[in-house]
Amino acid sequence: MGRIVELEAYIGEDDRASHARFGPTDRNRVMWGRPGTAYVYLVYGMYDCLNVVTEPEGRPAALLVRAVEPITGIEAMRMGRMNAVRGRRRATPEALEAERDRVERLPAARIARGPGLVAAAFSIDRSHTGLDLLDPSSPLRLEPAVAGDRPPQPVWTARIGVDYAGPPWTDRPWRLVDASSPAVSGPRARATA
DNA sequence: AGTTGGATGGTCT
DNA sequence: GACCATCCAACTG
């Protein structure tokens, strides 16, 4: 279990940074589905990324979960990280052993710092697309913050890795981080609003 | 602190 | 056939 400390919003077909810019396809169709649905895609041939559909049915929008601050189940998250590497094509036993060492020494705040690492830590892959993340009985689910949790320090910045979209989409302050968390993947300040 | 290049494969024009 | 909502190691200064 962990706390989501970094999100990016992708809203509408006109958002040139969003997968929805192509209209509905086999890959992105769930973005038009019910809010709370998981959308998981593969980037750069290697990393899965978890998104949560956010708008009512018919409007394509999702939040990319870019970083999670681990709270419990940290050893399971380390296992997830190592299993993700195990699935690679050219994974020699030596490289695997080195990775195991590295992941074991990783501070908790770095286990799920980055969208590809979030999916790896929680053992999420594309087969999870379509899951209802609001179902309280689901093993993978969203839960509201609990009273007494450290209050977040919200900061909005531009989205990361979307230069291909061009302005104004590259500049929209649609990345939300909790600046109080050490588990944020990119810049914590640089607010645009 | 910042830049560069390699890994790796699905998706779309 | 080009592009890509990434990550890490290996450089440079």
Question: What would your notes on this structure say?
Answer:
With 193 residues, this protein is an alpha+beta fold. The protein contains three helices and six strands; from the N terminus they run ββββαααββ. It has a six-stranded antiparallel beta sheet. Strand 3 and strand 4 form a beta hairpin. Helix 1 packs antiparallel against helix 2 and helix 1 packs across helix 3. The model has no long low-confidence stretch (mean pLDDT 94). The structure holds a DNA duplex (13 and 13 nucleotides).
Which bin fits the share of residues in helices?
A: 10-25%
Strand order of the largest sheet: 2-3-4-1-6-5
The counted number of beta strands is: 6
- What are the secondary-structure elements, in order, as H or E? EEEEHHHEE
Topology:
Blueprint: E1 2-11, E2 38-43, E3 47-53, E4 61-70, H1 74-86, H2 93-105, H3 115-121, E5 154-157, E6 175-178
Antiparallel strand pairs: 1-4, 1-6, 2-3, 3-4, 5-6
Helix pairs in contact: 1-2, 1-3
The protein binds a DNA duplex (13 and 13 nucleotides) through strand 2, strand 3 and helix 3.
Short description:
17% of the residues lie in helices and 21% in strands. By secondary structure, it is α+β, with helices and mostly antiparallel strands. Strand 2 and strand 3 form a beta hairpin.
